[in-house]
Amino acid sequence: MAEDIQTYLREQMPTWRDRYPGVIEMKVAVMGCVVNGPGESKHANIGISLPGTFEDPKAPVYVDGKLMVTLKANHRSRVLEDPRANVEKTYSTGTATAATPG
Question: Which of 5, 13, 50, 93 has a Cα-to-Cα distance from 80 of 20 to 30 A?
Fold first, then answer.
């Protein structure tokens, strides 16, 4: 799934770069563990912690350090929709909010 997200972001970036000033600075973290992933995801504009082997099928999604949703089971489309919605909301005004460590 991490590869799918990376591919999706690479495909969208040319369009987003023209439409949303500042989006090129967006930090995205796709982590493969729900144990360490949430802490690391909090330092990104969008952070997704995917379940590892033998972990419950859930994926916490963080936006600017805050837990926005926890996706359960196989919600590939939601994982890809959440970054798109955040890009549209955050960068449509031309002012981005940066993630702050903490």
Answer: 93
